[in-house]
Amino acid sequence: MTLTGKKVLMVIASREFRDEEYQKPRKILESEGVAVTVACSSMNESTGMLGLKVRPDILLKDAKPEQYDAVIFVGGMGATEYWDDPVAHALAKSVYGAGKPTAAICLAPMTLANAGLLQGKKATIWKDAVPDFKTKGVVYTGSPVEQDGRLITGSGPEAAESFARALVEALRK
């Protein structure tokens, strides 16, 4: 079963997103027929931590959750930009509230935690952020990829492929 017709919103930081956490999921999703839209807080070209350059399709504030079947918050050092961003929180809550997969990798799961989505839920995050993560009531598992219902989290670049595959399976349901 292909996922043709499905649409996923990928949220990247305006600088220092993690290249592999953007590239691998995007490639896997598109190979399954998914249309990917990239959102960011700026329409300027964003540069990843390893030098990848990406020009967003839309501003984060203009993203309409009802137009997407899932959302991915891409990690990297720049992902901290959305940790306390009310626009990012509202997007995540809206997508999750509509019963759709809501995903984040590396440092980005903290955005979901700060939005209140991960309290009492199993999740993972980049190891450096674990202490802050636990203060949000998250059940930290330390797994490379963790799925709790429609919430999918990944620990970092080495988990990017398995993270993407978990999202593909969630979109099939």
Main traits of this protein?
173 residues; alpha/beta; Rossmann fold; 5 helices; two-stranded antiparallel ribbon; seven-stranded mixed beta sheet
Percent of sequence in beta strands? 15-25%
CATH topology: Rossmann fold
Query: CATH class, anyone?
Result: Alpha Beta
- From the alpha carbons, calculate the radius of gyration and give it in angstroms: 14 Å
**H/E element string?**
EHEEEEEHEHEHEEEH
Contiguous runs where pLDDT drops below 50 for at least 5 residues? none
Please tell me the total number of domains.
1
N-to-C span? 11 Å
Topology:
Layout: E1 7-11, H1 19-31, E2 35-40, E3 46-47, E4 53-54, E5 58-59, E6 70-73, H2 86-97, E7 102-105, H3 109-114, E8 122-123, H4 130-134, E9 139-140, E10 145-148, E11 151-154, H5 160-172
Task: Write a structural description.
With 173 residues, the protein is α/β, with parallel strands linked by helices. Helices cover 28% and strands 21% of the residues. The chain has helices at residues 19-31, 86-97, 109-114, 130-134, 160-172; strands at residues 7-11, 35-40, 46-47, 53-54, 58-59, 70-73, 102-105, 122-123, 139-140, 145-148, 151-154. It is globular, with a radius of gyration of 14 Å. The mean pLDDT is 97.
Summarize this, please?
Helices cover 28% and strands 21% of the residues.
